[in-house]
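Re: the request from the purification team.
They wanted to know what the chain is likely to look like in 3D before they choose a buffer screen. I agreed to run a prediction and write the result into the notebook, where they can find it.
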Amino acid sequence: MALKATIFKADISITDMDRNYYNDHNLTIARHPSENDERMMLRIIAFIANAHERLQFTKGLSDDDVPDLWQKSFSDEIELWIELGQPSEQRIKKGCNQSQQMMIYSYADNSFDAWWKKEQNKLQTRKNLSVFTLPESLASTLANAVHRSMQIQVTIQDGQMWLTIEGADVTESVEVSIEKQL
């Protein structure tokens, strides 16, 4: 019998002064059985950093043909393709060719460093690709804040993100630094 996805709810209030974006999002997140809390929270951070009314989670791990998140135009063209982790060169090529903009989000750990050294020269030739990293230490902090129902307040200013995550009578405040690699 196949394992089913675990459903999480996140009510996110975003104040992004860098982009003049102020909105609330009520997200339902299906966490694939093979996905851990760190990766799920990285998806949420990527959503927050690029929040838009048409940005949406896809089937992600369940479907190799789509990214983790995407934003499509009203004419169904892919405006933004977001991958997590260290995607293969073929995956990056596909995302860059099928979308106007591709972004990769990853934790800056040893596996990312090895991947980056191997792929850096090839990636820099892609004009519509951006790679962002979050500190490795942030992964466990964000994972510890995960609850099935979360209220997340976000403020973004001068490239810094401040999160307050509430759920199950626990409140966690986190400052997130996202570093651009390209």
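For the purification team: The chain has four helices and eleven strands.
Please add any questions underneath this entry.
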